[in-house]
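Handout, section B. The chain below has 382 residues.
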Amino acid sequence: MKRKTLALLLCVCVALMFTLGACGGGGSSAGGSSAPAEEPVAEEPDVEADVTAADGQGVPSQPPSGDTSAVEGTTVGVIPITLSNGFHQAEKIWREKYAEEYGITLKYLDGEFDQQTIVNNLDQLIAEGVDAIILHSYEVDSVVPGIDEARAQGIPIIEYYLETPNEIPFVAINEATAALKMGEAAATAWIEAHPDEPIVYSVVDYIDSPVVQTMRTQPFIQGIKNVAPDAKEGAIVDGGGTRDTGYKVAQDIIQSHPETNIFYGASSDYSLAIYPALQEAGRGKATDGVPETEIVVGTDATGEEMKLVYDPSSSFKVTMGLTPKDNGKAIMDTMVRVMIGELDADTKIQIDTFDQEFDYWSTTVEDARTWYTDQYGMEPEF
């Protein structure tokens, strides 16, 4: 893809983010200003070094070290969990860029945030006989037979974000560290601003998604309790999968648990549903960055979220940055390593990427802008 074309596509993608918001999983510690440096190319592949330990800890992504000419002209099927929000749109653009560098054509079948659609898409790609498959599923059990069938037919397949029991490579996003930091940051800021008001937290959540619970919601709540052990739960309610449904859930929580003073949206679709619901109720305000009635915490660090985080009059003050550039590269590099035999297609191998915690109080807007430009390919509007 030529540079001008990529820049144009990225601009379109980010414009879509401001209207659609984002959902989904990249970065490191708070205050970081750019993506981590790429791993050096190894002189000789070492498959054993990449096999996950029993504790589930993986290794950083690295590019292929061998000859990649064998993948030129191949077609890789991709099933994203959804393409209806900004993060996944941006990640798609980066993935396509890196695929083109390898001479690979990507065939996308949108999962539409519906598990049956994901299962059907997997069956379709297997029937078409694509050369390899990248799978992002919402639920584990229903895709296990399809993964087994792909391997039986000699089609390499890697899973992304959600791990299944299948012995195949897995590109993980470690979100738990950043989620924990978000909880700690929100609780610390609330206690500093309102020391006499005990913390009550509520979540618009993906209750049926174990990976969201493990990587986002549970560590976020643990972060709050690390700072405020007596913090109480208001409500944790499934958001229904869209911003519209999340908005209705947020309205219900505000009415039934008005004492909530930390709100968490487990995706930007949900956090950007919570915030207008609060505004409608006369809330959502801050004075010079000090929250008045609550702190809103988001996920994805889309442009729309970041604009609110750095608005001193908004109570939306914390989010977790997902790295579409880093993830897109990690996915394609891992896929190619499997396709050329550097990684065993039938061995559980975990490749880790990481998210970035952002908050108004400890991450400068300059660092946030640098990170955003690197990951989304254009100057931010915040």
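Note. The first helix runs from residue 3 to 20. Compare this with the example in section A.
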